[in-house]
């Protein structure tokens, strides 16, 4: 166990340092600016939470009701964080290659991977309710700690560990069916369906909690089991909560496989000859990726849920989830850019990165719109905005994949990129909301932001490819730069490669 903890810390330290030395964050000034923006956004959220909670501070009953309702939302947030990290970790087995030279067993390596994943999930979950926790302590002092522990800390830990046990059981089930190479993919899909089901029960749960509060009797729900037990016997709650956490940790450790099972990175799709007339190699890297399959399933499930739920949200907004398939697209196509015949144009590379996602969204948008128009025509009104949102998602996800390149499919880079994008665009959204500009001006600002993001992505692609070309050397001959045919357009390629053949011999 200790070896696994040390190994998990080593992985986290390695990739944290690598991320801070590659891409946008390699400049110290940029890192300082990002930290200032993050603290600014956190301060704004804390101030908003403080103003919201201040009227409740004088009424313990309302305070208790608010925390019980917040626990219901916390469960959904914890489930979402668990699934997001699981999706990002589907193809992260390449990280373990860094540990093959270390004196650790396969089980210790698998446990370290699980700890690394748990640490990132815990951070994502904590960030969702950090502002509320800080504001609660500022208003109530230490008397808020029991609420935070019983409503946030323990339920989040139990939900995460319970989902971990369920995920392990699902993986074992798929493995028994000889589907081990896509067990992670199938398990994530099942858990996402569970998340959608839970989201449909949230309104009824909140109504039950509120009715119980006004009736003066309270109601027992599994989401508020810890708080319910604390109200009746704090000593029993203090004993039962650690026992439940320890039991779930033991179950996760017992169900962890002795060796990490590598998942299939690509699926055998679009093998027909006519597909080659439309799809480029970059497009195949996208549409055959297992994470694209997850995004596609999420899109279909969200579309069906929004269409059945009735008026309120246009079902076409589910296409935004499909744009997340591009988070690993730039790093996943790096082998193509290493080929001698690869293009040197950063603009063309960017266009190819976007083309596959545009085709993917179009392939889903057309049938979704037709089905929605037949089932509920009113729900399909103003479908242009969801489409623009999906295309804006393409620009944003490509920017994340380029500016925060994922070395060895490391999810830490992607999560950090998503966090930076959330901070920057969150502050922009807050500023636009406070200024209350006309709709035309707001659209113009958003269009300018999208153009700036696209231009920055092209510049970063040019810089990344130039640095990679300069670092490339002849194998086994350090200091001898590798010549590529693209650098000498007037030479015969065989002449350009002759030096490498001689060196290799």
TrEMBL record:
Q: Where are the residues of the annotated region Disordered?
A: 464-505
Per the UniProt record, which residue ranges are transmembrane? 31-53, 65-90, 110-133, 145-170, 182-200, 236-255, 292-310, 316-332, 353-375, 387-405, 412-434, 440-459
The keyword Transmembrane helix appears for this protein: yes
Q: Organism, per UniProt?
A: Glycomyces sambucus
Supply the name of the protein.
ABC-2 type transport system permease protein
Keyword terms: Membrane, Transmembrane, Transmembrane helix
**Taxonomic superkingdom:** Bacteria
**Which intervals carry biased composition (Basic and acidic residues)?**
464-486, 494-505
């Amino acid at each position: 166990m200790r070896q696994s903890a040390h190994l998990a810390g080593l992985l986290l330290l390695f990739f944290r340092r690598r991320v801070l030395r590659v891409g946008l964050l390699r400049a110290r000034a940029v890192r300082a600016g990002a930290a200032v923006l993050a603290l600014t956004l956190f301060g704004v959220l804390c101030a908003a939470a403080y103003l919201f909670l201040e009227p409740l501070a004088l009424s313990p009953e309302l305070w208790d009701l608010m925390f019980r309702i917040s626990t219901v939302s916390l469960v959904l947030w914890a489930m979402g964080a668990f699934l997001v990290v699981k999706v990002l970790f589907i193809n992260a087995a390449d990280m373990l290659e860094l540990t093959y030279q270390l004196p650790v067993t396969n089980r210790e390596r698998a446990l370290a991977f699980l700890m690394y994943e748990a640490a990132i999930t815990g951070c994502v979950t904590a960030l969702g309710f950090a502002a509320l926790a800080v504001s609660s302590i500022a208003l109530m002092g230490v008397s808020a700690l029991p609420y935070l522990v019983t409503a946030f800390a323990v339920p989040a830990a139990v939900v995460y560990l319970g989902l971990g046990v369920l995920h392990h059981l699902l993986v074992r089930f798929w493995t028994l069916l000889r589907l081990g190479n896509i067990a992670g993919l199938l398990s994530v899909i099942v858990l996402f369906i569970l998340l959608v089901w839970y989201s449909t029960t949230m309104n009824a749960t909140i109504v039950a909690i509120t009715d119980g509060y006004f009736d003066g009797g309270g109601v027992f729900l599994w989401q508020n089991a810890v708080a319910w037990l604390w109200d009746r016997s704090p000593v029993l709650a203090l004993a039962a909560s650690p026992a439940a956490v320890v039991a779930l940790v033991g179950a996760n450790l017992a169900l962890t496989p002795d060796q990490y099972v590598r998942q299939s990175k690509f699926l055998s799709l679009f093998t027909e000859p006519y597909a080659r007339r439309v799809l480029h190699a970059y497009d195949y890297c996208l549409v055959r990726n297992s994470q694209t399959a997850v995004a596609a399933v999420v899109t279909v499930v969200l579309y069906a849920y929004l269409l059945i739920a009735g008026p309120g949200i246009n079902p076409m907004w589910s296409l935004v989830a499909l744009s997340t398939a591009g988070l690993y697209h730039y790093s996943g196509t790096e082998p193509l850019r290493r080929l001698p015949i690869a293009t040197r144009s950063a603009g063309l590379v960017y266009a190819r990165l976007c083309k596959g996602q545009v085709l993917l969204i179009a392939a889903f948008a057309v049938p979704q719109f037709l089905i929605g128009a037949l089932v509920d025509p009113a729900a399909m009104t103003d479908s242009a905005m969801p489409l623009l949102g999906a295309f804006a998602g393409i620009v944003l996800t490509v920017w994340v994949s380029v500016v925060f390149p994922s070395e060895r499919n490391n999810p830490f880079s992607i999560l950090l990129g998503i966090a930076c994008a959330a901070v920057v665009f969150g502050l922009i959204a807050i500023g636009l909301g406070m200024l209350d500009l006309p709709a035309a001006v707001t659209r113009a600002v958003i269009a300018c932001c999208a153009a700036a993001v696209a231009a920055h992505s092209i510049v970063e692609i040019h810089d990344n490819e130039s640095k990679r070309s300069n670092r490339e050397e002849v194998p086994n001959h350090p200091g001898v730069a590798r010549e590529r045919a693209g650098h000498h357009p007037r030479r015969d390629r065989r002449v350009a490669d002759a030096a490498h053949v001689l060196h290799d011999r």
